[in-house]
Amino acid sequence: MYNQIDSNKRKTWLLMTIFLIVIVLLGWVFGEAYDLGYGGLVIALMIAVLMNLFSYFKGDKVALAISGAHPIQKENNPYIYRLVENLTIASGLPLPKIHVINDPNINAFACGRDPRHASIAITTGAAEKLENEELEGVIAHELSHIKNYDIRLMTIVIVCVGVVTLMADFFLRANFMFGGKRDRNSGNLGAILMIAGLVLAILSPVFATLIQLAVSRKREYLADASSSLLTRYPEGLARALEKIRDFNQPMKRANHATAHLYIASPFSGVGKKMAGLFATHPPIDERIAKLRGMA
C-alpha cells in the first residue's frame, strides 16, 4: 500500500511540473511574439488567479448542483451518515458535508477546497446495492481524495487547463487579426518564432487536457491505495468496483465538467479494459487487480 501511494505521488508531481512548463512556454512565446517581454506570463498569471478564486470558493457548490446532490442530516439517512462519521474519526478528518444523489448507479465523489470545507456525495444506488464493507471502501476512497488534497489539486489542474486554452485562443485570434510584431519586424527569425507559436497554441490545449486526465487517473490509483490503508480491507473496494463494472449505466446527471470527480466514470463504457488518453479514470480491471495485489 505504501509503495503504491509513494509511486502515484511522484508521478502526479511529474505531470504537474510538465503542466507548469507548458504554461510558462506558452506565456513566453506570447510575450515574444508581441514584444511584451514578461507580459505574456503576467497575463497568464492574472487569468489563473481570477479563475482560481472562483473555483476555490464556489467550485464545490457548482459540482454538487450539476450532479443533483442534496444534503442530508443524521436523521435523514443514519446508515450513510454513520459510515461517513466512523471513517472520518478513523482517518482523523473533520466530518464533511454529506450529500445523496438520487440515481440507481453505484457512484460517489468528493469536492471542496480543503478537509474543513469538503463535501461528499453518494448515490442511492451505492447505498442500496453495496454491502457494508463495499460501501465503506467507496466512502474511504472519497475521504482519501479529501485527505490527500486531491479536491484542491484537481481544481488547480482544471484552472491550468483553462488558462492554457484561453491563452492559446487569444494568441491565435490576435495573430490572424493583427499579425505578430516580430513577424513583421524581425525577418526570418520572427517568422519562425510565429510559426512555432502557432503550432504551440494549436497543440497546447490538447496537451493540457491530456495532462489533466493523466493526473486524474493517477489520483484514482492513489485514492484506492489510501482507502485500503484506511479500512485495512482492500477486498471491500475491489468488490464494489466489480459491481460498478458489471451493473453501472450512464448516470442521469452525467457531465463532462464533473466526470473526473467520481469514483468511476458516470458515462458508459466503465468496464472497458483499455483506458484511452481521454479517459478520466484508469481501467476498472486494473484497479481491482492492484487492490487485490496489496498486502
UniProtKB/TrEMBL annotation:
Compartments it resides in: Cell membrane
Species name: Candidatus Komeilibacteria bacterium RIFCSPLOWO2_01_FULL_45_10
Highest taxon of the lineage: Bacteria
Membrane-related topology note: Multi-pass membrane protein
Cellular component aspect of the GO annotation: plasma membrane
Keywords: Cell membrane, Hydrolase, Membrane, Metal-binding, Metalloprotease, Protease, Transmembrane, Transmembrane helix, Zinc
Cofactor remark: Binds 1 zinc ion per subunit.
Keyword Metal-binding in annotation: yes
InterPro entries noted in UniProt: HtpX_protease (IPR050083), Pept_M48_protease_HtpX (IPR022919), Peptidase_M48 (IPR001915)
Spans through the membrane: 12-30, 36-57, 153-172, 192-215
BP terms from Gene Ontology: proteolysis
Residues annotated as the enzyme's active site: E142
Protein family (similarity comment): Belongs to the peptidase M48B family.
A GO MF label: zinc ion binding
UniProt name for this protein: Protease HtpX homolog
Enzyme class: hydrolase
